[in-house]
Amino acid sequence: MKFFIDTANLDQIKEAQDLGVLDGVTTNPSLMAKEGITGKENIINHYKKICDIVTGDVSAEVISTDFEGMVREGEELAKLDDKIVVKVPMIKDGVKAIKYFSDKGIKTNCTLVFSAGQALLAAKAGATYVSPFIGRLDDISTDGLNLIAEIRMIYDNYNFDTQILAASVRHTMHVIDCAKIGADIMTGPLSSIEGLLKHPLTDIGLAKFLADYNKGN
Ligand code: E4P
User: Which residue positions are annotated as catalytic (predicted)?
Assistant: First the structure.
């Protein structure tokens, strides 16, 4: 399973990269705005900074909602770095744009996916990644993990190459459950990755080992 970090915060991206388990980054316009990154030029420069830190794929989202605009923006973004994946919303023109990018060998991440049907369409269009938002489904009392299981079954039935990128991951249990179901990737905050480290018995055990070692010194 690959781990992506879902942030535009450079310090957190560096921290996850330094941990040695980071496989990529996802961003969106809201995450950019959260870091105070606004305006096309600043956003482009920020993508370049992220690409300089990480070794894996970096999802960069288009703002246009029409086919021509998405193609123009996506081609511009893809030229920034080989790591850039063009993030396209699951709307009608988005599906057309994903097919266009796929035919041109440009990597895509189909975002804002909330149903198995949408995921099937994204795969048919040739998306590199599909992003079902599990946390936002949980927020409206719908089982986000069940959607991951449905997509896994459909993609396996037909050997689709599209990778399931479980998005809107909020905590460590989401990560563990996605791993059990067989999501290819999860993207979440740094806390969802670092939270996997923690267990009180590890801390108690280590304290005891060190105390016993020190008895002999
Ligand atoms: C996915 O790529 C999105 O950036 C993200 O996972 C959305 O998460 P949220 O629902 O926590 O905003």
Answer: 87
